[in-house]
C-alpha cells in the first residue's frame, strides 16, 4: 500500500512540474505558458465534501481553421498534453473525494468525519485512483458554423459529456459553450482577368476577324493570363460568343498566405457590326453588282466567240439545232450575236447555316455561225444557248447598305461548251438551278427594277 501511495504522489508531482515548472528565456512565451498553466490548474474545481467534481475542458480544445478566405472549414482536436494534465487532476480529485468519504464513514462519532471527511494533506491511497480516460472519450464538440468561413468570423463551440459516464463519475463540465474568432485562412486575391480587355470584330459573318487587345489590362494580367475565344464557322450579328481566360504556364504565385483566383474565366461577347450576306435583297440596291457582272459576262463571251473561236485553226465540234458542225484546220465565223439576261435568282441558305447568299444570272445567247464554203454549209443560225453567271461575296452592313459588290464567275467550268450548245431554258434551269433547292431558298428577282442594266448586247463581225 505504501508503494502505491508513493507512485501516486510521483504522478501528481510530474503533472505539476509539467505545467508549473517550465521556464523560457522568452518573456512573451513565459507569460503565454503561465496562462496555460493557470487555465489547466484552474480547470478542475475543488469539490466540497461530496459535491460533484466540476472541471473545464475548453483549454484542451484546439480549433484548426483551414482553406481559403470565404471558403474556410474548421476542425477540432484535444491537446494531448493539456488533456492528460486535466485528466490527472480530475482523477486526483476523484480519488481524494473517494478516500475522504471512505474515512468519514469509518470514523463514527468523529466530528471531522461527520462533516464529510475533508482532508487535503493526507497522501491519497492509489487504490482510489481509477482510469478516467473513458469519460474523456465521450466528449462531444460541435462547432457552428463549420464551413464557408472567413477571417474574423465568430464560431460557437458547444461541449458535452456522455450523461451516463458523467453520472457514474459524478463529474460535470464547467464550460459547455464558448466562442472563437476565425483566423489563419489563406487570403484570396480575386482578379477579373477581363478587366481592360477589348474584343474587336471586323469582316463579315462568315469571314470574321477577331482580335483580343489586352493593352489596357494590368501588367499582372498581361504577364500571367492567356486568352482565347470560341471558334465558329459563322459569327452572326445579334448572337454572342465566349472569350476564355486561363493561367499561363509561368503562373506559380500561390502560397500559404495568399492565393490568386479569377473571379470568372469566361466572358460573353455580343456580335454586332459585321458585314453579312443579305438574307433578303428587298431593300438592297444591286445596281452596281449586277452592272459589273453583266459587263464582265459580255466581255468574256464576246472575246471567246468572236476572237478565240474565229481565229482558231483547230478542230471544233458543235451541235446546233441537231446539226453537227465539224471542220479541220478551218474557221468558223460568228456574227450577229445577241446576249440578254433572261432571269435573275437570289439564293438564300436555309436554316441560317451562314453559307453565302448567291445571285445567279441566266444569260441567253443568240448568234449566227458560218462554216467554210468548202463544206457546203452556209448561214447556220443558232437557236438559243444559255450561260449561268454566279455572284458571290456581295455583302451588306447592318443597315442593309451594299459594302462589297462581290465576285463574278461562271457557275460551271464548261461554260464555253454551253456557249456553243443549243438548248432550252427549262433544260438549262433543271441542270443549273434545281440542285440548289435542297439547301437554298430560290427567289426570282424582278428584272424590271434593273432593266437599264440589262440592255441587249449586239456584236457583229
**How far apart lie the N and C ends?**
144 Å
Class from helix and strand fractions: alpha+beta
Count of alpha/pi helices: 10
What is the number of domains? Answer: 3
Q: What proportion of the residues is helical, as a percent range?
A: 25-40%
Average pLDDT, to the nearest integer? 77
Strand content: 25-35%
Rg to the nearest angstrom?
Answer: 50 Å
**What is the number of strand segments?**
25
What kind of sheet is the major sheet? 7 strands, antiparallel
Q: Uncertain regions: pLDDT < 50 for 5+ in a row?
A: 1-32, 112-117, 313-330
Shape, please?
A: rod-shaped
Question: What structural keywords apply?
Answer:
461 residues, single chain, 25 strands, seven-stranded antiparallel β-sheet, 31% strand, alpha+beta
Task: Explain what you see.
The protein is of the alpha+beta class. The protein folds into three domains: 2-185, no CATH class; 190-270, no CATH class; 287-459, no CATH class. Helix content is 26%, strand content 31%. Strands 17, 18, 19, 20, 23, 24 and 25 form a seven-stranded antiparallel sheet that branches. The termini are far apart.
How do the helices and strands line up, and which of them pair or pack?
Layout: H1 2-20, H2 27-42, E1 53-55, E2 61-66, E3 73-78, H3 80-106, H4 111-114, H5 133-137, E4 140-144, E5 154-160, H6 163-169, E6 171-173, E7 177-181, E8 187-191, E9 198-203, E10 208-213, H7 219-224, E11 225-229, E12 240-247, E13 258-262, E14 266-270, H8 287-309, E15 316-320, E16 323-327, E17 333-349, E18 358-370, E19 380-381, E20 385-392, E21 395-396, E22 402-404, E23 407-410, H9 415-419, H10 425-432, E24 440-444, E25 457-459
Parallel strand pairs: 1-6, 8-13
Antiparallel strand pairs: 2-3, 4-5, 5-7, 9-10, 11-12, 12-14, 15-16, 17-18, 17-24, 17-25, 18-19, 18-20, 20-23, 21-22
Helix pairs in contact: 1-3
Amino acid at each position: 500500500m505504501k508503494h502505491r501511495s508513493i507512485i501516486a504522489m510521483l504522478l501528481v508531482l510530474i503533472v505539476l512540474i509539467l505545467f508549473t515548472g517550465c521556464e523560457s528565456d522568452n518573456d512573451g512565451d513565459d507569460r503565454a505558458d503561465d496562462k496555460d498553466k493557470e487555465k489547466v490548474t484552474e480547470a478542475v474545481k475543488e469539490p466540497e465534501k461530496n459535491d460533484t467534481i466540476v472541471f473545464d475542458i475548453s483549454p484542451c480544445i484546439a480549433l484548426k481553421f483551414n482553406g481559403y478566405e470565404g471558403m474556410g472549414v474548421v476542425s477540432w482536436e484535444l491537446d494531448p498534453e493539456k488533456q492528460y494534465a486535466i485528466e490527472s487532476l480530475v482523477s486526483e480529485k476523484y480519488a481524494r473525494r473517494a478516500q475522504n468519504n471512505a474515512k468519514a464513514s469509518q470514523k463514527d462519532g468523529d466530528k471531522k468525519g461527520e462533516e464529510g471527511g475533508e482532508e487535503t494533506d493526507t497522501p491519497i491511497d492509489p487504490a482510489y485512483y481509477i482510469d478516467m480516460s473513458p469519460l474523456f472519450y465521450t466528449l462531444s464538440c460541435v462547432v457552428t458554423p463549420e464551413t464557408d468561413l472567413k477571417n474574423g468570423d465568430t464560431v460557437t463551440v458547444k461541449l458535452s459529456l456522455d450523461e451516463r459516464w458523467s453520472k457514474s463519475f459524478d463529474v460535470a463540465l464547467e464550460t459547455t459553450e464558448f466562442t472563437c474568432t476565425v483566423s489563419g485562412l489563406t487570403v484570396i486575391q480575386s482578379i477579373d482577368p477581363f478587366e481592360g480587355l477589348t474584343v474587336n470584330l471586323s469582316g463579315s459573318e462568315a469571314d470574321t476577324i477577331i482580335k483580343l487587345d489586352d493593352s489596357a489590362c494590368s501588367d499582372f494580367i498581361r504577364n500571367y493570363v492567356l486568352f482565347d475565344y470560341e471558334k465558329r464557322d459563322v459569327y452572326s450579328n445579334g448572337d454572342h460568343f465566349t472569350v476564355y481566360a486561363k493561367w499561363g504556364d509561368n503562373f506559380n504565385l500561390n502560397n500559404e498566405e495568399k492565393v490568386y483566383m479569377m473571379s470568372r474565366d469566361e466572358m460573353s461577347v455580343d456580335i454586332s457590326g459585321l458585314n453579312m450576306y443579305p438574307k433578303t435583297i428587298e431593300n438592297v440596291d444591286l445596281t452596281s453588282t449586277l452592272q459589273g457582272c453583266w459587263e464582265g459576262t459580255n466581255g468574256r463571251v464576246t472575246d471567246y466567240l468572236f476572237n478565240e473561236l474565229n481565229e482558231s485553226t483547230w478542230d471544233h465540234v458543235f451541235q446546233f439545232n441537231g446539226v453537227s458542225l465539224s471542220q479541220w484546220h478551218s474557221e468558223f465565223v460568228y456574227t450577229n450575236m445577241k446576249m440578254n439576261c433572261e432571269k435573275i435568282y437570289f439564293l438564300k441558305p436555309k436554316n441560317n447555316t451562314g453559307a453565302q447568299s448567291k445571285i445567279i444570272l441566266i444569260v441567253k445567247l443568240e448568234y449566227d455561225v458560218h462554216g467554210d464554203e468548202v463544206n457546203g454549209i452556209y448561214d447556220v443560225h443558232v437557236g438559243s444557248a444559255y450561260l449561268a453567271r454566279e455572284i458571290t461575296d456581295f455583302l451588306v452592313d447592318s443597315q442593309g447598305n451594299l459594302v462589297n459588290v462581290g465576285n463574278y464567275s461562271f457557275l460551271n467550268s464548261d461554260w464555253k461548251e454551253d456557249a456553243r450548245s443549243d438548248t432550252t431554258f427549262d433544260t438549262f434551269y433543271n441542270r443549273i438551278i434545281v440542285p440548289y433547292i435542297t439547301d437554298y431558298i430560290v427567289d426570282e428577282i424582278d428584272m424590271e427594277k434593273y432593266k437599264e442594266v440589262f440592255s441587249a448586247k449586239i456584236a457583229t463581225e
